[in-house]
Amino acid sequence: MSATFQTTRRFRERGFTLVEIALALGIAAFALVGIIGMVPVALDNARESRQQTHAAFIARTIFGNLFSGADGKAMVQVSESGSDSDFELVALEPELARSFTLAFDEAGRLVDPEGAGTPREALFTAQLTLTKTDEKPARAEVSVETPPGAAKANRQAYQFVSQVFR
Question: Number of H helices and number of E strands within the chain?
Answer without folding.
Answer: 2, 7
